[in-house]
Structure of Monosaccharide ABC transporter membrane protein, CUT2 family:
Amino acid sequence: MTTTTAPPASRGTAVAERLRQPSFWVEWASVLGLVVLVAIFTVLDPRFLSSGNIKTMLLASAILTILAVGQSFVILTAGIDLSIASTMTLAAVAFGMAMTSGKGLFLSCIVAVLAGAAVGLVNGFLIAKGGITDFIVTLGALSAASGLALILSDGRPITVISAPLFKLSAGGFGMIPYTFLIALGVAVLAHLVLFSTPFGTHVLATGGSVDAAQATGVRTARIKMAVYLISGVLAGLAAILLVARVGSAEPAANTTFLLNSVAAVVLGGVSLFGGKGSIKGPVFGALLLTALTNGLTLLGVSQFYQPLAVGIVVVGAAFLTRFET
């Protein structure tokens, strides 16, 4: 039996047809946007693509990448985690307290991850079993986690001095920091889980239609609990990298991480209605947001204008998703 291949003209027609579909631009918006940004900033300031600046951007993007991956799992089920940045803050404080009490690096890392997991588990339980909307639950968790972090730390930063943590934040392979490699590993694992396991299939099915998923035997309540648990665990991991980067556990929550984690997911083409998306998109979305902020800083643009630029980019990406088919 012989096989035939499509003639070049047919292939060209198929490519042209694909380019005319809005879904293509939604899926690849973050990648194309990153390429355009890199080109513009390189022309405006050649320092943008210097090895030192590339390493700086990758280092800065690691934490956001991990948070965006966690947020992606939640949004793929048509939910949202407004507490992710506060969870990271609480986990950072727990990590700092464990380190300063002499628990050691390994046990302190476990404490941080468990603190994040606890918040995620409570969120998931109240949403899946309690029947409370995700917006209200995670908004309440945002406030509760922030308050608990301030109470535990007495409102003061907890200085963490650790040679391994310093090596983690400062070291790497050439221009590639260790922290970014960790974030990349998380993204690869998340991709495999989402697209190569029954759990990932159930996550997408739950986001597509809860009723349809339940009709096929998917335990949607457990899936929702699981994705918020994943978000909490990854917030705990991000907390460790954050402490390694700044050298202390800051009890004040940084809402920029919350807004940018959602922004990276939107830029990555993940549907806010659930059921559609990828992991690579949010990763490139995190890189795009980091590159945008870094490029504007190099050009001397006031930091007051940077959130405005990010907001415009995100609204543009969200508007594009309206035409997805």
The domain at 30-319 is CATH 1.10.3470 (ABC transporter involved in vitamin B12 uptake, BtuC).
